[in-house]
Fold this sequence. Notes:
By secondary structure, this protein is mainly alpha-helical. Helix content is 89%, strand content 0%. Helix 2 runs antiparallel to helix 5. The termini are far apart.
Amino acid sequence: FRGLPTVLVVGTAVIFLILVWEFGRLGPAVACLIAAVASMVGSFAALAITGITLNISSFMGIIMVAGITAKNGILLLDRAESGAGGAGGSPRESLMRAAQVRLRPILMTTLATGAGLFPLALGIGAGAQVQQPLAVAVIGGLVLAMLLSTPIAGGIYLLTTRRRAVETATEIDDTRD
């Protein structure tokens, strides 16, 4: 159990490095990472509500939630990034188009994961009580991710992209002078 916090930190660092590599800049990577960390609150809340202690199984669920939420952020923000470059629209318009296209797959995978883990979370089936903490942690994290993490990732993306767009516009104006 003592090694799991290290696994979480290393896993988070690896996720962040992959995100920076994927996007080629820090803004979207930070947005995905903050959304992933925020979704972990849902895991801890679900464990507290159900009275399940933090153990190896629940900790593994929390690590899974971070990865799933980061994947959701990648789906959304990668689409927004590709839309921003090609369509010539504002970052907000690109994000809105990306949300229209990617929200359905994000919801489908999130709901399918939660539905698949629901019997396990209820303790139904042979050996289910052993993995019940994992299921509760994942479902709790995914519920919060579904409600908050996508808007958090989108909001942070807009803040970092607007700042970059303003800096670029200022540089263009400086070259004209």
